[in-house]
Protein backbone atom coordinates (compact mmCIF):
# COMPACT_ATOMS: atom_id res chain seq x y z
CA UNK A 1 0.00 0.00 0.00
CA UNK A 2 1.40 3.37 -1.16
CA UNK A 3 2.06 6.22 1.19
CA UNK A 4 0.06 9.47 0.91
CA UNK A 5 3.17 11.32 -0.39
CA UNK A 6 3.55 8.81 -3.22
CA UNK A 7 -0.14 9.13 -4.11
CA UNK A 8 0.17 12.93 -4.30
CA UNK A 9 3.24 12.72 -6.50
CA UNK A 10 1.54 10.25 -8.83
CA UNK A 11 -1.48 12.56 -9.10
CA UNK A 12 0.76 15.54 -10.07
CA UNK A 13 2.46 13.46 -12.78
CA UNK A 14 -0.91 12.40 -14.22
CA UNK A 15 -2.13 16.03 -14.31
CA UNK A 16 1.10 17.22 -15.89
CA UNK A 17 0.96 14.58 -18.64
CA UNK A 18 -2.67 15.47 -19.31
CA UNK A 19 -1.82 19.13 -19.79
CA UNK A 20 1.45 18.75 -21.68
CA UNK A 21 0.46 15.81 -23.84
CA UNK A 22 2.37 12.60 -24.41
CA UNK A 23 4.73 14.00 -27.05
CA UNK A 24 5.75 17.21 -25.36
CA UNK A 25 9.54 17.18 -25.14
CA UNK A 26 9.62 20.50 -23.34
CA UNK A 27 7.94 19.31 -20.17
CA UNK A 28 9.38 20.89 -17.02
CA UNK A 29 11.60 18.47 -15.24
CA UNK A 30 10.45 17.35 -11.82
CA UNK A 31 12.48 19.03 -9.08
CA UNK A 32 14.51 17.03 -6.62
CA UNK A 33 14.85 19.18 -3.56
CA UNK A 34 17.30 18.16 -0.91
CA UNK A 35 15.89 20.26 1.90
CA UNK A 36 12.40 21.22 2.93
CA UNK A 37 12.88 24.96 2.43
CA UNK A 38 14.17 24.55 -1.16
CA UNK A 39 11.34 22.14 -1.84
CA UNK A 40 8.77 24.94 -1.36
CA UNK A 41 10.49 27.21 -3.91
CA UNK A 42 11.28 24.49 -6.50
CA UNK A 43 7.84 22.89 -6.40
CA UNK A 44 6.16 26.31 -6.69
CA UNK A 45 8.29 27.14 -9.73
CA UNK A 46 7.60 23.73 -11.24
CA UNK A 47 3.85 24.28 -10.78
CA UNK A 48 4.02 27.70 -12.48
CA UNK A 49 5.97 26.22 -15.41
CA UNK A 50 3.28 23.58 -15.87
CA UNK A 51 0.64 26.31 -15.76
CA UNK A 52 2.49 28.14 -18.55
CA UNK A 53 2.77 24.95 -20.61
CA UNK A 54 -0.91 24.30 -20.09
CA UNK A 55 -1.89 27.85 -21.08
CA UNK A 56 0.18 27.49 -24.23
CA UNK A 57 -2.08 24.63 -25.24
CA UNK A 58 -5.19 26.87 -25.13
CA UNK A 59 -6.34 28.38 -28.47
CA UNK A 60 -6.88 31.85 -27.09
CA UNK A 61 -3.28 32.12 -25.92
CA UNK A 62 -1.96 30.82 -29.23
CA UNK A 63 -4.10 33.42 -31.00
CA UNK A 64 -2.59 36.17 -28.86
CA UNK A 65 0.90 34.85 -29.66
CA UNK A 66 0.30 34.94 -33.41
CA UNK A 67 -1.41 38.33 -33.13
CA UNK A 68 1.69 39.77 -31.45
CA UNK A 69 3.88 38.38 -34.21
CA UNK A 70 1.53 39.83 -36.82
CA UNK A 71 1.68 43.26 -35.15
CA UNK A 72 5.48 43.17 -35.35
CA UNK A 73 5.36 42.28 -39.06
CA UNK A 74 2.82 45.04 -39.80
CA UNK A 75 4.90 47.58 -37.87
CA UNK A 76 7.98 46.56 -39.86
CA UNK A 77 6.11 46.93 -43.16
CA UNK A 78 4.79 50.33 -42.13
CA UNK A 79 8.28 51.48 -41.19
CA UNK A 80 9.56 50.40 -44.59
CA UNK A 81 6.65 52.05 -46.43
CA UNK A 82 7.15 55.30 -44.50
CA UNK A 83 10.86 55.45 -45.15
CA UNK A 84 10.80 54.54 -48.83
CA UNK A 85 8.82 57.69 -49.84
CA UNK A 86 11.06 59.75 -47.59
CA UNK A 87 14.12 58.49 -49.39
CA UNK A 88 12.47 59.03 -52.77
CA UNK A 89 11.53 62.57 -51.67
CA UNK A 90 15.12 63.30 -50.69
CA UNK A 91 16.38 62.06 -54.05
CA UNK A 92 13.71 64.09 -55.88
CA UNK A 93 14.69 67.25 -53.98
CA UNK A 94 18.36 66.75 -54.86
CA UNK A 95 17.41 66.20 -58.52
CA UNK A 96 15.27 69.36 -58.49
CA UNK A 97 18.15 71.45 -57.12
CA UNK A 98 20.40 70.00 -59.83
CA UNK A 99 17.90 71.10 -62.50
CA UNK A 100 17.74 74.60 -60.99
CA UNK A 101 21.54 74.83 -61.04
CA UNK A 102 21.99 73.37 -64.52
CA UNK A 103 19.46 75.75 -66.05
CA UNK A 104 21.13 78.81 -64.53
CA UNK A 105 21.44 81.59 -67.07
CA UNK A 106 19.09 79.87 -69.54
CA UNK A 107 15.81 81.48 -70.53
CA UNK A 108 12.44 79.98 -71.33
CA UNK A 109 13.13 76.59 -69.74
CA UNK A 110 10.00 74.93 -68.32
CA UNK A 111 12.05 72.32 -66.43
CA UNK A 112 13.48 75.01 -64.19
CA UNK A 113 10.02 76.38 -63.41
CA UNK A 114 8.79 72.87 -62.56
CA UNK A 115 11.84 72.19 -60.38
CA UNK A 116 11.44 75.43 -58.38
CA UNK A 117 7.71 74.83 -57.99
CA UNK A 118 8.41 71.27 -56.79
CA UNK A 119 10.80 72.54 -54.13
CA UNK A 120 8.34 75.17 -52.95
CA UNK A 121 5.47 72.67 -52.88
CA UNK A 122 7.52 70.40 -50.60
CA UNK A 123 8.25 73.38 -48.33
CA UNK A 124 11.94 73.41 -49.18
CA UNK A 125 13.48 76.79 -48.40
CA UNK A 126 14.48 78.75 -51.50
CA UNK A 127 16.28 81.37 -49.42
CA UNK A 128 19.17 82.83 -51.36
CA UNK A 129 17.97 81.39 -54.69
CA UNK A 130 20.16 82.79 -57.47
CA UNK A 131 18.07 83.24 -60.60
CA UNK A 132 18.74 86.65 -62.17
CA UNK A 133 17.06 87.24 -65.54
CA UNK A 134 15.31 83.87 -65.22
CA UNK A 135 12.12 83.23 -67.17
CA UNK A 136 9.59 82.33 -64.47
CA UNK A 137 6.42 83.60 -66.09
CA UNK A 138 3.23 82.45 -64.31
CA UNK A 139 5.22 80.42 -61.77
CA UNK A 140 3.34 79.28 -58.64
CA UNK A 141 5.28 79.99 -55.46
CA UNK A 142 2.59 80.79 -52.90
CA UNK A 143 4.03 80.88 -49.40
CA UNK A 144 7.54 80.07 -50.62
CA UNK A 145 10.61 81.14 -48.66
CA UNK A 146 12.58 83.36 -51.06
CA UNK A 147 14.35 85.53 -48.52
CA UNK A 148 17.55 87.08 -49.92
CA UNK A 149 16.78 85.57 -53.36
CA UNK A 150 18.36 87.21 -56.41
CA UNK A 151 15.65 87.57 -59.05
CA UNK A 152 16.88 90.79 -60.59
CA UNK A 153 15.68 91.22 -64.14
CA UNK A 154 13.64 88.00 -63.91
CA UNK A 155 10.36 87.56 -65.74
CA UNK A 156 7.75 86.87 -63.06
CA UNK A 157 4.80 88.22 -64.97
CA UNK A 158 1.45 86.91 -63.65
CA UNK A 159 3.34 84.86 -61.04
CA UNK A 160 1.49 83.54 -57.97
CA UNK A 161 3.51 84.74 -54.98
CA UNK A 162 0.80 85.29 -52.39
CA UNK A 163 2.12 84.96 -48.87
CA UNK A 164 5.69 84.39 -50.09
CA UNK A 165 8.65 85.60 -48.05
CA UNK A 166 10.70 87.88 -50.31
CA UNK A 167 12.23 90.00 -47.59
CA UNK A 168 15.57 91.52 -48.62
CA UNK A 169 15.22 89.88 -52.05
CA UNK A 170 16.71 91.52 -55.13
CA UNK A 171 13.91 92.10 -57.65
CA UNK A 172 15.39 95.17 -59.28
CA UNK A 173 14.33 95.48 -62.90
CA UNK A 174 12.15 92.36 -62.61
CA UNK A 175 8.89 92.00 -64.51
CA UNK A 176 6.11 91.36 -61.99
CA UNK A 177 3.29 92.79 -64.05
CA UNK A 178 -0.02 91.24 -63.10
CA UNK A 179 1.63 89.17 -60.37
CA UNK A 180 -0.28 88.17 -57.22
CA UNK A 181 1.65 89.19 -54.11
CA UNK A 182 -1.15 89.55 -51.59
CA UNK A 183 0.09 89.26 -47.98
CA UNK A 184 3.64 88.68 -49.27
CA UNK A 185 6.59 89.83 -47.17
CA UNK A 186 8.84 92.21 -49.12
CA UNK A 187 10.38 94.16 -46.27
CA UNK A 188 13.72 95.62 -47.30
CA UNK A 189 13.40 94.17 -50.81
CA UNK A 190 14.97 95.90 -53.81
CA UNK A 191 12.28 96.56 -56.43
CA UNK A 192 13.95 99.54 -58.01
CA UNK A 193 12.95 99.91 -61.65
CA UNK A 194 10.72 96.82 -61.46
CA UNK A 195 7.48 96.49 -63.40
CA UNK A 196 4.59 95.86 -61.01
CA UNK A 197 1.83 97.29 -63.14
CA UNK A 198 -1.53 95.72 -62.28
CA UNK A 199 0.14 93.66 -59.56
CA UNK A 200 -1.90 92.62 -56.52
CA UNK A 201 -0.10 93.62 -53.32
CA UNK A 202 -3.06 93.96 -50.97
CA UNK A 203 -2.06 93.58 -47.32
CA UNK A 204 1.55 92.95 -48.35
CA UNK A 205 4.46 94.07 -46.17
CA UNK A 206 6.86 96.34 -48.08
CA UNK A 207 8.27 98.18 -45.10
CA UNK A 208 11.53 99.92 -46.03
CA UNK A 209 11.42 98.43 -49.54
CA UNK A 210 13.03 100.22 -52.49
CA UNK A 211 10.50 100.90 -55.26
CA UNK A 212 12.22 103.91 -56.77
CA UNK A 213 11.45 104.41 -60.47
CA UNK A 214 9.27 101.30 -60.43
CA UNK A 215 6.18 101.01 -62.62
CA UNK A 216 3.29 100.54 -60.18
CA UNK A 217 0.52 101.81 -62.39
CA UNK A 218 -2.89 100.34 -61.53
CA UNK A 219 -1.27 98.18 -58.82
CA UNK A 220 -3.35 97.25 -55.77
CA UNK A 221 -1.72 98.19 -52.44
CA UNK A 222 -4.93 98.20 -50.42
CA UNK A 223 -4.07 97.81 -46.73
CA UNK A 224 -0.38 97.26 -47.47
CA UNK A 225 2.42 98.28 -45.11
CA UNK A 226 4.58 100.72 -47.09
CA UNK A 227 6.08 102.55 -44.16
CA UNK A 228 9.45 104.18 -44.91
CA UNK A 229 9.43 102.65 -48.40
CA UNK A 230 11.17 104.50 -51.23
CA UNK A 231 8.79 105.42 -54.09
CA UNK A 232 10.83 108.31 -55.44
CA UNK A 233 10.06 108.94 -59.13
CA UNK A 234 7.85 105.83 -59.19
CA UNK A 235 4.83 105.53 -61.48
CA UNK A 236 1.73 105.03 -59.31
CA UNK A 237 -0.79 106.24 -61.85
CA UNK A 238 -4.27 104.97 -60.90
CA UNK A 239 -2.77 102.78 -58.18
CA UNK A 240 -4.98 101.69 -55.26
CA UNK A 241 -3.34 102.71 -51.97
CA UNK A 242 -6.51 102.99 -49.92
CA UNK A 243 -5.96 102.22 -46.28
CA UNK A 244 -2.24 101.72 -46.87
CA UNK A 245 0.43 102.55 -44.29
CA UNK A 246 2.78 105.10 -45.88
CA UNK A 247 4.16 106.79 -42.80
CA UNK A 248 7.60 108.35 -43.45
CA UNK A 249 7.55 106.99 -47.02
CA UNK A 250 9.51 108.74 -49.76
CA UNK A 251 7.15 109.64 -52.62
CA UNK A 252 9.07 112.62 -53.91
CA UNK A 253 8.61 113.12 -57.63
CA UNK A 254 6.23 110.14 -57.81
CA UNK A 255 3.34 110.08 -60.27
CA UNK A 256 0.16 109.49 -58.25
CA UNK A 257 -2.24 110.80 -60.82
CA UNK A 258 -5.78 109.53 -60.14
CA UNK A 259 -4.40 107.22 -57.45
CA UNK A 260 -6.68 106.20 -54.58
CA UNK A 261 -5.14 107.13 -51.23
CA UNK A 262 -8.36 107.36 -49.24
CA UNK A 263 -7.91 106.55 -45.54
CA UNK A 264 -4.19 106.04 -46.10
CA UNK A 265 -1.67 107.06 -43.45
CA UNK A 266 0.91 109.40 -45.02
CA UNK A 267 2.02 111.15 -41.85
CA UNK A 268 5.57 112.41 -42.17
CA UNK A 269 5.81 111.23 -45.79
CA UNK A 270 7.85 113.08 -48.39
CA UNK A 271 5.71 114.06 -51.40
CA UNK A 272 7.75 117.01 -52.61
CA UNK A 273 7.16 117.57 -56.31
CA UNK A 274 4.77 114.64 -56.50
CA UNK A 275 2.07 114.56 -59.19
CA UNK A 276 -1.37 113.97 -57.63
CA UNK A 277 -3.74 115.23 -60.30
CA UNK A 278 -7.22 113.90 -59.57
CA UNK A 279 -5.95 111.73 -56.74
CA UNK A 280 -8.36 110.61 -54.00
CA UNK A 281 -7.07 111.47 -50.54
CA UNK A 282 -10.37 111.60 -48.67
CA UNK A 283 -9.92 111.13 -44.91
CA UNK A 284 -6.22 110.46 -45.44
CA UNK A 285 -3.74 111.31 -42.69
CA UNK A 286 -1.24 113.80 -44.13
CA UNK A 287 -0.08 115.22 -40.83
CA UNK A 288 3.32 116.91 -41.11
CA UNK A 289 3.66 115.69 -44.70
CA UNK A 290 5.99 117.45 -47.18
CA UNK A 291 3.98 118.45 -50.27
CA UNK A 292 5.88 121.54 -51.35
CA UNK A 293 5.64 122.14 -55.10
CA UNK A 294 3.37 119.10 -55.44
CA UNK A 295 0.64 119.09 -58.09
CA UNK A 296 -2.77 118.36 -56.55
CA UNK A 297 -5.06 120.02 -59.03
CA UNK A 298 -8.48 118.40 -58.99
CA UNK A 299 -7.50 116.16 -56.08
CA UNK A 300 -10.07 115.07 -53.50
CA UNK A 301 -9.00 115.78 -49.93
CA UNK A 302 -12.37 115.82 -48.19
CA UNK A 303 -11.88 115.41 -44.45
CA UNK A 304 -8.16 114.86 -44.87
CA UNK A 305 -5.75 115.70 -42.06
CA UNK A 306 -3.14 118.16 -43.36
CA UNK A 307 -2.29 119.78 -40.06
CA UNK A 308 1.25 121.15 -39.99
CA UNK A 309 1.76 119.93 -43.55
CA UNK A 310 4.06 121.82 -45.90
CA UNK A 311 2.21 122.69 -49.10
CA UNK A 312 4.13 125.83 -49.97
CA UNK A 313 4.15 126.36 -53.71
CA UNK A 314 1.81 123.42 -54.25
CA UNK A 315 -0.93 123.53 -56.88
CA UNK A 316 -4.32 122.69 -55.37
CA UNK A 317 -6.43 124.49 -57.93
CA UNK A 318 -9.95 123.03 -58.20
CA UNK A 319 -9.11 120.58 -55.41
CA UNK A 320 -11.82 119.55 -52.96
CA UNK A 321 -10.66 120.23 -49.39
CA UNK A 322 -14.06 120.44 -47.77
CA UNK A 323 -13.86 119.89 -43.98
CA UNK A 324 -10.13 119.21 -44.28
CA UNK A 325 -7.83 120.01 -41.37
CA UNK A 326 -5.12 122.46 -42.47
CA UNK A 327 -4.43 123.91 -39.06
CA UNK A 328 -0.90 125.32 -38.86
CA UNK A 329 -0.15 124.19 -42.41
CA UNK A 330 2.46 125.97 -44.52
CA UNK A 331 0.57 127.13 -47.60
CA UNK A 332 2.48 130.20 -48.69
CA UNK A 333 2.52 130.65 -52.44
CA UNK A 334 0.16 127.71 -52.91
CA UNK A 335 -2.55 127.78 -55.56
CA UNK A 336 -6.12 127.27 -54.33
CA UNK A 337 -7.95 129.00 -57.15
CA UNK A 338 -11.50 127.65 -57.53
CA UNK A 339 -10.71 125.09 -54.81
CA UNK A 340 -13.34 123.99 -52.30
CA UNK A 341 -12.23 124.78 -48.73
CA UNK A 342 -15.70 124.97 -47.24
CA UNK A 343 -15.77 124.32 -43.50
CA UNK A 344 -12.05 123.59 -43.58
CA UNK A 345 -9.88 124.20 -40.53
CA UNK A 346 -7.21 126.79 -41.43
CA UNK A 347 -6.48 128.05 -37.92
CA UNK A 348 -3.00 129.51 -37.85
CA UNK A 349 -2.33 128.46 -41.41
CA UNK A 350 0.36 130.33 -43.33
CA UNK A 351 -1.24 131.47 -46.57
CA UNK A 352 0.93 134.46 -47.45
CA UNK A 353 0.97 135.11 -51.20
CA UNK A 354 -1.33 132.15 -51.74
CA UNK A 355 -3.76 132.22 -54.66
CA UNK A 356 -7.29 131.73 -53.31
CA UNK A 357 -9.09 133.42 -56.16
CA UNK A 358 -12.53 131.96 -56.74
CA UNK A 359 -12.04 129.53 -53.83
CA UNK A 360 -14.97 128.45 -51.68
CA UNK A 361 -14.07 129.32 -48.08
CA UNK A 362 -17.64 129.37 -46.74
CA UNK A 363 -17.73 128.29 -43.14
CA UNK A 364 -13.96 127.88 -43.03
CA UNK A 365 -12.06 128.80 -39.88
CA UNK A 366 -9.14 131.11 -40.70
CA UNK A 367 -8.60 132.44 -37.18
CA UNK A 368 -5.04 133.65 -36.75
CA UNK A 369 -4.18 132.69 -40.31
CA UNK A 370 -1.54 134.63 -42.23
CA UNK A 371 -3.21 135.84 -45.44
CA UNK A 372 -0.81 138.66 -46.17
CA UNK A 373 -0.53 139.39 -49.89
CA UNK A 374 -2.92 136.54 -50.59
CA UNK A 375 -5.22 136.68 -53.58
CA UNK A 376 -8.82 136.33 -52.36
CA UNK A 377 -10.54 137.90 -55.35
CA UNK A 378 -13.96 136.35 -56.02
CA UNK A 379 -13.45 133.97 -53.09
CA UNK A 380 -16.55 132.98 -51.13
CA UNK A 381 -16.04 134.02 -47.49
CA UNK A 382 -19.64 133.54 -46.36
CA UNK A 383 -19.60 132.49 -42.74
CA UNK A 384 -15.80 132.22 -42.73
CA UNK A 385 -14.05 133.08 -39.45
CA UNK A 386 -11.25 135.62 -39.88
CA UNK A 387 -10.74 136.61 -36.25
CA UNK A 388 -7.11 137.56 -35.72
CA UNK A 389 -6.25 136.82 -39.36
CA UNK A 390 -3.51 138.87 -41.06
CA UNK A 391 -4.94 140.38 -44.26
CA UNK A 392 -2.17 142.87 -44.91
CA UNK A 393 -1.86 143.40 -48.66
CA UNK A 394 -4.50 140.78 -49.36
CA UNK A 395 -6.70 141.17 -52.44
CA UNK A 396 -10.14 141.15 -50.85
CA UNK A 397 -13.14 143.49 -51.03
CA UNK A 398 -15.18 145.01 -48.24
CA UNK A 399 -18.26 143.22 -49.50
CA UNK A 400 -16.48 139.89 -49.16
CA UNK A 401 -15.45 140.65 -45.59
CA UNK A 402 -18.99 141.69 -44.63
CA UNK A 403 -20.15 138.11 -45.10
CA UNK A 404 -17.35 136.80 -42.89
CA UNK A 405 -16.91 136.76 -39.11
CA UNK A 406 -14.10 139.15 -38.14
CA UNK A 407 -11.39 140.00 -38.73
The rounded Rg comes to 42 Å
**Mean pLDDT figure:** 87
Number of strands: 0
Report the oligomer.
Answer: single chain
Shape assignment: elongated
The main pleated sheet reads as: none
Helix content: 10-25%
- What distance lies between the first and last C-alpha atoms, to the nearest angstrom? 146 Å
> What share of the residues does DSSP label as strand, in percent?
under 5%
**Low-pLDDT ranges:** 19-23
- Which structural class do the helices and strands define? mainly alpha
Number of DSSP helical runs: 5
Order of helices and strands: HHHHH
Provide a concise account of the structure shown.
The chain is mostly helical and 407 residues long. The chain is 24% helix and 0% strand. The chain has helices at residues 4-20, 36-56, 59-102, 110-121, 398-402.
Kindly describe this structure.
The chain has 407 residues and is an all-alpha fold. Helices cover 24% and strands 0% of the residues. The protein contains five helices and no strands. It has helices spanning 4-20, 36-56, 59-102, 110-121, 398-402. Helix 3 crosses helix 4. The protein starts with a helix and ends in a 5-residue tail after the last helix.
Amino acid sequence: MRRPQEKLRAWWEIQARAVAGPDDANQPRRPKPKTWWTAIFLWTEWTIKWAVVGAGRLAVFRLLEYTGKLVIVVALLMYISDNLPSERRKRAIVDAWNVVGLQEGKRGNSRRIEAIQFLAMHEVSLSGLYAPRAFLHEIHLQGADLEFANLSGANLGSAELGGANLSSADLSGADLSGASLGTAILGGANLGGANLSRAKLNDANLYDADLSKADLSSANFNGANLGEANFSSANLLKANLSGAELGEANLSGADLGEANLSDANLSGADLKGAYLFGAKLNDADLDDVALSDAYLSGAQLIGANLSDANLSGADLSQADLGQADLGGAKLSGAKFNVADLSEANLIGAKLSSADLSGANLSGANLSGADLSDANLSSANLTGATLIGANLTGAQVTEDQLKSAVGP
